[in-house]
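To the structural biology subgroup,

Please find below the input and predicted structure for Acetate kinase, which we are adding to the shared reference set this quarter. The sequence is reproduced verbatim from the submission form. If anyone notices a discrepancy with their own records, reply to this email rather than editing the shared folder directly, so we keep one authoritative version.
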Amino acid sequence: MKVLVINCGSSSLKYQLMNPETREVYAKGLCERIGIEGSKMEYEVPARDYEIKVEKPMPTHKEALELVINAITDKENGVIASVEEVEAIGHRVVHGGETFAKSVLITDEVMKAIEANNELAPLHNPANLMGVRTCMSLMPGKPNVAVFDTAFHQTMPAEAFMYALPYEDYTELKVRKYGFHGTSHLYVSETMREIMGNPEHSKIIVCHLGNGASVSAVMDGKSVDTSMGLTPLQGLMMGTRCGDIDPAAVLFIKNKRGLTDREMDNRLNKESGILGVFGKSSDCRDMENAVDEGDARAKLAEDMFIYRIKSYIGAYAAVMGGVDAICFAGGIGENASGIRERVIESLGFIGAKIDKEVNSVRKKGNVKLSTDDSRVLVYKIPTNEELVIARDTYRIVTEK
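Predicted structure (tokenized):
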């Protein structure tokens, strides 16, 4: 089966055409700056080592998707003869609220339910829905499936997802922890369980570390806690997001600086984190290079980032009553060997030991980082969210 995976942002559209059964990726790419001057499309055919970039106006997502369809069906460089070969479309949808605990076939009722959660993800859900509507318009009759970032974490118990606020804030406003990066946490934890031989019982901590970062506790294949909350702002310190903070500090800063709600939100989401402390960049690589050059604020930002990761790992080991494996994924998790080493070296009290030599060598694929005498397995596992979306899409459209 050929499944087209779509991930729509407000001004971008990521795509992959793939076979979820064989994992083969026929084509993939990105349309960016949609509705903005200088819009362009990247198109890649991995099997042929073919890649192009096309600069062309894309006023809306409709024009962007038309470019994608033209590229994958192009007589010379396409990968399918016509769009009829696309059997289903899988969409990443950021927030499913409490409504969706699993992926679903998109119907009019599902669209309305996703729209009802727009307030919980105002920057993401409307863009995701825009992608769905565009696909339905350009490829009528094709089944569309919604795969939610929040769904994997819907197995959290109430004591983990509830906030200690007046109860009506939950019942009336649905204010609670939802968690994000669910497709990544699902893929990485499932892969780790396979490596472990698919035991009946397992305690796995997944560290998805990128510009956005989150940690999850996965017990017996189910999420029992995760660091992100009502929004992706809670939890770890991130590239530009502050992560955990005293709520009173938000009101204090807002009032002292005379900021509007939007300005304060921007400060927390786009001016904080690594960027806020380091001051020069939100990129972990820039921070690490500056640390090597003796930059004190870069060192402080790195120490804070690592401290938060260690704190969550320790907390989740306590929540699960131990830990069998710790996994690193995401751009930082997969590439920042120094950060991995510092995190694991601090976890000797739970029996985790890292092989420094193996950890220092960049290798593709799943890599065991722990020593043979480590009581906790430590792995680098590159995430594959598109495969999760494609697999769920395949499963739903082929269900009898």
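Summary notes: The mean pLDDT is 96. The longest strand covers residues 25-32.

Regards,
Lab coordination
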